[in-house]
């Protein structure tokens, strides 16, 4: 019962944090001198609960959970989360979003290559973190331009009156912090629920823990879609995929070299998914048909892992 109580509490926190982030992201972006897309890629994309979970799992000698969570979260976000959002409302996937999807795919490929031999050592972990820092700097440099674009322009118009509010950035950070607390509670709940099932560490990390730690992204995507700023939601998903493939996996390997089994195949699937999204974005949008296909893909993935 305690596991389900944790999950219920986390759902409340995740919803509150997502609403704070989605409401104030545009104003925060203008105060930082970057676009709302950069706020989504950087702030929503950095998932401290993913990194903390992977670190604890690595330090407690559960490398399968650490690596499985990082990779499984990416598969979950790029199929389940994007699929549900696209079924609810078609998602914008224009040229700039496509560019960042290719970057996320490249980061996923780097992660998959480090997992090829079934071991990620500290040197490879350092390289993954350095890659994240470099890509983060690239995003920040590219997005330091004031004009909004696409769907994000609606956010700029809606928040025009609040652009000069000094607390907008603080509220965005608070939203991310609340989502992080909610995500950590979700992880604790998932661990309690699956403890008695006798599954392998990598199986737990790829499925149950990954689903729990991506719950705040689902809440964020839902909040952004309701506000008509789907571009922000897509940016958050791609930023998270980039973060997990580099910073989360790298930090876990730095804490303790990871020796894993059963993660390499899912890692290559996670690396391919951003490219699949690019291919599926007909007329620069991911429509309902593609969303249904992504949901089916997630179901197939879970069935294959749990069999």
Describe how the helices and strands are arranged.
Elements: H1 2-32, H2 36-44, H3 48-59, H4 63-88, E1 91-92, H5 95-114, E2 119-120, H6 122-142, H7 152-158, H8 168-194, H9 201-213, H10 215-226, H11 230-255, E3 258-259, H12 264-280, E4 285-286, H13 288-306
Antiparallel strand pairs: 1-4, 2-3
Descriptive notes:
The protein is mainly α and 307 residues long. It has a single domain, classed as NCX, central ion-binding region (A middle domain of Talin 1, Up-down Bundle), CATH 1.20.1420.30. The chain has 13 helices and four strands. Strands 1-4 form a two-stranded antiparallel sheet. The longest helix has 31 residues, at 2-32. The chain is globular. The relative contact order is 0.26. Residues 146-156 and 158-164 have low confidence and may be disordered.
In short:
78% of the residues lie in helices and 3% in strands.
Please describe the structure with a list of short key phrases separated by commas or semicolons.
mainly alpha, 307 residues, single chain, 3% strand, two-stranded antiparallel sheet, A middle domain of Talin 1
